[in-house]
Amino acid sequence: MLTTPLATARLALLPLCVGHAEEMATVLDDPALHTFIGGAPSTPEALHTRYERLVAGSADPAVSWHNWVLRLTAENRLVGTVQATVSADHAEIAWVVGTPWQGRGLASEAARELVAWLRDEGVRTIVAHIHPEHSASAAVARAAGLAPTRETQDGEVRWRLDTAPRTHG
Question: Any idea where the domains of the chain sit in the sequence?
Fold first, then answer.
């Protein structure tokens, strides 16, 4: 499964590369983005190191990492990321859009495209973990077709989508 460029009406989803670190550090520099996930904004150097690890891929051959940056085509600038960790026919997904671009439906648009790509790749179960008070992220999950379950992990609600198997013919 290769991380390939994807596109929506307003976004280019570009496979993550180390060269995105500097611009993404600016996109992700608002401490409010860390309200529900913890941590603090990363420096360009820290993101560079992190992106090197992500681009290198998982050390586990049964797990693949897929990371994209979101380029808002009308502004020709990066505005966020989406990611999927895939093992067998299961994927865990996540997204983030920088504060100045929130409220425009960009995360939902990107998450829908990510879910469609995963379905096309034969992934049968797609999950996301969302803080119970993070209503914006819950709206993104719902827009992408996921539904909340009764399961929690580390205080977050597990959202899930079971997809139909692909048919050939």
Answer: 6-162
